[in-house]
Amino acid sequence: MTARDYVFIVLGLTMYAFGFSAFILPHKVVIGGMAGLGSVVYFLTQHLHEQGYFPFVIPVAVTMYTVNAILLLIAIRIVDRQFTIRTLFGMSAVSLLIAFFQPIGLALNIMPDKFVSLLLGPIMMGSGLGLVFIHNGSSGGTDIIAAMVSKKSNVTIGRTMIVCDFIIVGSAYFVLHYSLTEIVYGLMVTILTGYCCDLVVNSNRQAVQFTIISKRWETIADAINTEAHRGCTAVDAMGWYSKQPVKMLIVMCRKIESVTIYRIIKSIDPDALVTQGNVNGVYGKGFDIMKVKTDKTRQNSNPKVAETANSTEKTTR
Questions:
Q1: How far apart are CA 268 and CA 152, in angstroms?
Q2: C-beta atoms surrounding 150 within 10 Å
Q3: Is the pTM of this model over 0.85?
């Protein structure tokens, strides 16, 4: 990861920590993840301290970092070195940020309206997590558990995280004696946070396909290669009105790069015929990796396929 990645990871974790501390924690809603587990411990020790049964209140950040450290020590022999470094950085940063924002959020109570808070909180938290994941970061917590389970079984990471989150939210019913309404609030916030996270991640991965017909197709193709750093495919075609052969360029790029493609085309040939369409998925070099299981028999019979599959598996790890 580059320094730019770490900057955006810290920005995303700051959004997550502020959204949690300012909008969720003041309303005593228990959500999924390590923040939710830290909330359970915080509210429990707060109640016991007020009753004189416990000497102090344990902040959310302390529980988060302690549990994350224990999980990481358990997982260190299972997960790879890069995941360990990313998780160590993420869990340290998010714990420090929540430790900073928690007293501020509880003291100010920025949004007294509970319903509005439970909308703003997950939107900010999910957007922050999405930013973290886009830049290959990790906040620790259930990510560590999911990574360990996926290494040892066929259970997917997403399913493991859902189960962990539901257990943490449900624990508030038994430990803090929350009503079912409060449990539903917690589940709603957890689901909305994940939904907002997916929106951010998927919007970054959206791809488009350009088809370009121009007499200056070679110049356009060279410019797209050198300036936009995207490949082009030249296809032989025929204009049926003119009955003349033409070249049609096909270009795949991220949606956020489409403006760059348009600028290149317009600067070279303003009269070029251009179409743009959304595509459901683009897989290959420069885009996403196909994460599907391959036929072992076919894979073993073709050394090149086996080599590619092994390298892809290492990359995804």
A1: 54
A2: 18
A3: no
Along the 317 residues of the chain, how does pLDDT read in single tens digits?
678 888 999 999 999 999 999 999 999 999 988 999 999 999 999 999 999 899 999 999 999 999 999 988 888 877 777 878 888 899 999 999 999 999 999 888 888 899 999 999 999 999 998 888 888 788 877 777 776 776 666 665 667 778 888 999 999 999 999 999 999 999 999 999 888 888 887 776 678 899 999 999 999 999 999 998 888 999 999 988 888 899 999 999 888 788 899 999 999 999 999 999 888 667 776 666 665 555 555 555 555 555 555 544 444 34
The residue behind tokens 């996270």 is 197
Tokens linked to 114: 């509970």
